[in-house]
Amino acid sequence: AAGVIQSPRHLIKEKRETATLKCYPIPRHDTVYWYQQGPGQDPQFLISFYEKMQSDKGSIPDRFSAQQFSDYHSELNMSSLELGDSALYFCASSPNPTSTSYEQYFGPGTRLTVT
Amino acid sequence: AQTVTQSQPEMSVQEAETVTLSCTYDTSESDYYLFWYKQPPSRQMILVIRQEAYKQQNATENRFSVNFQKAAKSFSLKISDSQLGDAAMYFCAYRSFSGAGSYQLTFGKGTKLSVIP
After folding, report:
1. What is residue A98's predicted lDDT score, i.e. its pLDDT?
2. Residues from chain A contacting residue B45 (CB–CB below 8 Å)
3. In the predicted model, is pLDDT for residue A40 greater than 70?
4. What are phi and psi of B103, to 5 degrees?
5. Tens digit of pLDDT for each residue in A79-108?
6. How far apart are CA B5 and CA A102, in angstroms?
7. How confident is the model at residue B101 (pLDDT cuts 50, 70, 90)?
8. Which residues in B have their CB inside 8 Å of a CB on A?
9. Which of B35, B103, B107 minimises the CB distance to A48?
């Protein structure tokens, strides 16, 4: 079965640089969530999109922005990177959240290292 | 806001034995979903089992089952016949039922499970 695809899988950036993470949801899933997992931490919700519109916002820094495109893939843009942004970034997808299928399926994550 | 608490940072179990991981949560909502996710060393987040709060019957998936006590706001995971591949970090997670809340997942801090051969 098709899974959530994230690219790149690993990314190394220097402080103050910009990074773009991509997420391709499971086919026919129209909702995308982004989570950040720091070392030894639980995943923290950043932002979500439903039908290409932002549906919810969590603890996402102003330096970060995201969008969902017409093909439902999503991109997380991170600017002015800081050492503390080093983390594993997950994308998850689900069908319409009001449907009976409500599970979120996670991609393999993008490991971002800021030096 | 909802909170999820996993009071056992680490646990261990002998291979083929049974282990129970604890999770409690706090919410003012009457309907919601609860999940257990497994995160092995590969760091992939794998859905293990889910429970709808409006269902009284406890969910079961092969060797994995839950004990859902809604009044006590408790949602424990039982792993039977533990296998070496079960060694992982296990996260308990909460999701609102309706759009009045948020569909985001709120995770506990996790329980690291070791399986002893």
Report:
1. 64
2. 43, 90, 92, 106, 109
3. yes
4. -90, 0
5. 999 999 999 999 999 887 666 557 899 999
6. 22
7. very low
8. 33, 35, 37, 42-47, 50, 91, 95, 99, 102-110
9. B103
DSSP E strands in A25-81: the ranges are 31-37, 44-50, 53-57, 64-68, 74-78
**pLDDT tens column, B29-83:** 888 899 999 999 999 999 999 999 988 899 999 999 999 999 999 999 999 999 9
pLDDT at A101: 58
Residue B16 in contact with residue B117, Cβ under 8 Å? no
Of A41, A45, A109, which is closest to B104 when you measure between CB atoms? A45
The residue whose two tokens read 């039977």 is B80
Compare all CA atoms of chain A with the CA of B108 and give the residue at the minimum distance: A42
First to last CA, chain B: 41
**Cβ atoms of residues B39 and B103 within 8 Å:** no
Nearest residue to B55 via CA among B33, B36, B77, B26: B33
Return the structure tokens found at A33: 């969530």
Dist CA A92 CA A23 (whole Å): 8
